[in-house]
């Protein structure tokens, strides 16, 4: 099957457009086009969502329900959210549109020796914008098997455009509902041995001469949701030398259960908890991939990555998402004479004594800790968790 108005494959050769693919979908197509190691998949475009809403005849009803809504009136927001989502979930998808999605799913499955689980992820047109941290406001569903589960959860993603959290976020950030749409990503599920996030700066102060990586065992949702304390490593962006590292407890991992056909939480044994989840070579590879994403997008990136158990070493590092870092990137950068290789630091020239030693130590310094991090040490997951909490 080839890409069309309603379905766009990551490698379909069509230019990615935010208004068609949403933030996440456009990013995945862009990364695939740039030759980055992205698991294959396709996007159910905004045109399909728009056609579904139009066919259902509920566009006007949605706008009327949202008009004049007070973001501080949680009771009313919850009531409106529930009404809109139930309307979307209860309406039939036009047969021609459903058939396009079914064919696309079958085409994706044909790339593998046997059917593989997929992730179904919301991709709204208002997410991952340079001036908005919209990630996590809609739904993501993991380890889905079969076309019935996939099509049903695509509809769930459409409905999640109107969760209470998403509605309040748009109201408070003056994002209009007119023209708002939703694409949905359907992508091969990664069988993650280790996964995590990386930011191409020090997120505590915006220092762009650093790369900060969180890693833990299993699927990365436990990292980004803050359910586990991951390993936290900071590297010099030029030399890729470790500046500081704190071993997280990593007490649990989310792994597939082939019998149950779903992801299950499993306790991590003491030996694995006591060592870093990434080897030196894997750590370097993650940092290099983060740098590559930053170079491609020409701004600091917040990436999600995983090491796939099903792939051989050297080919198993996959890029799952790359979005602009928004906390510090919107602030003017201040040149720092201490920054290596021409990178700039977000630190004020009059940096205070509160700056942690790990951010000022020379690149050749010994890591500040090889044991579990204390409650006072910085954890990248604490920031990403605030951006990627599950929807209501």
Strand portion, in percent? 15-25%
List the secondary-structure elements in sequence, H or E: EHEHHHHEEHHEEEHEEEEHHEEH
- Percent range for helical residues? 25-40%
Helix segment tally: 11
- Name the assembly state: single chain
Give unreliable regions as ranges: 334-392
Global geometry: globular
Annotation, overall tally of beta strands: 13
Largest sheet: 6 strands, antiparallel
Question: Strands, helices and their partners?
Answer:
Elements lengths: L6 E3 L8 H16 L7 E4 L1 H11 L2 H8 L7 H17 L4 H15 L8 E7 L15 E5 L2 H13 L4 H9 L9 E7 L3 E8 L10 E8 L3 H4 L6 E6 L5 E5 L5 E6 L4 E6 L2 H4 L6 H18 L3 E8 L8 E8 L55 H8 L5
Antiparallel strand pairs: 1-2, 2-5, 3-4, 3-5, 6-7, 6-12, 7-8, 8-9, 10-11, 12-13
Helix pairs in contact: 4-6
Task: Give me some keywords for this one.
392 residues, alpha+beta, six-stranded antiparallel β-sheet, globular, disordered C terminus
At a glance:
The chain has about 400 residues and is of the alpha+beta class.
Structure report:
The chain is of the alpha+beta class and 392 residues long. The chain has eleven helices and 13 strands. The protein has a six-stranded antiparallel sheet, sandwiched between helices. Strands 1-2-5-3-4 form a five-stranded antiparallel sheet. The longest helix is centred in the C-terminal third of the chain and has 18 residues.
């Amino acid at each position: 099957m080839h890409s069309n108005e309603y379905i766009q494959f990551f490698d379909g050769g069509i230019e990615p457009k935010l208004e068609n693919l949403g933030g996440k979908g456009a990013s995945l197509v862009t990364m695939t086009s740039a030759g980055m190691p992205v698991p294959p998949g396709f996007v159910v475009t905004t045109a399909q969502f728009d056609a579904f809403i139009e066919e259902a005849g509920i566009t006007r009803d949605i706008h009327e329900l949202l008009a004049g809504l007070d973001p501080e009136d949680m009771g009313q927001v919850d009531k409106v959210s529930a009404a809109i989502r139930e309307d979307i979930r209860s309406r039939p998808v036009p047969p021609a549109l459903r058939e396009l999605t079914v064919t696309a799913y079958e085409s994706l499955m044909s790339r593998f020796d046997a059917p593989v689980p997929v992730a179904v992820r919301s991709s709204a047109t208002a997410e991952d914008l340079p001036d908005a941290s919209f990630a996590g406001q809609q739904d993501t569903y993991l380890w889905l098997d079969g076309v019935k589960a996939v099509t049903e959860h695509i509809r769930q993603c459409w409905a999640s455009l109107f969760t209470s959290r998403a509605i309040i976020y748009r109201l408070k950030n003056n994002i209009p509902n007119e023209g708002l749409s939703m694409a949905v990503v359907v992508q091969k599920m990664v069988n993650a041995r280790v996964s995590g996030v990386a930011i191409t700066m020090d997120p505590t102060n915006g220092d762009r001469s650093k790369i900060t990586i969180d890693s833990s065992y299993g699927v990365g949702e436990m990292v980004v949701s803050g359910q586990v304390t991951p390993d936290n490593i900071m590297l010099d962006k030029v030399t890729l030398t470790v500046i500081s590292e704190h071993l997280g407890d990593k007490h649990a991992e989310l792994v597939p259960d082939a019998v149950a056909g779903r992801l299950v939480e499993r306790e991590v044994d003491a030996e694995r908890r006591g060592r870093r989840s990434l080897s030196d070579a894997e750590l370097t590879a993650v940092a290099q991939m983060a740098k590559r994403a930053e170079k491609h997008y020409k701004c600091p990136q917040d990436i999600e990555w995983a090491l796939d158990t099903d792939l051989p070493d050297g080919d198993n590092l996959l890029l799952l998402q790359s979005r602009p870092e928004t906390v510090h990137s919107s602030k003017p950068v201040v040149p720092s004479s201490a920054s290596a290789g021409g990178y700039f630091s977000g630190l004020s020239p009059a940096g205070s004594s509160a700056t942690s030693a790990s951010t000022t130590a020379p690149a050749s310094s010994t890591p500040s800790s090889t044991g579990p991090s204390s409650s006072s040490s910085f954890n990248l997951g604490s920031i990403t968790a605030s951006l990627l909490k599950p929807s209501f």
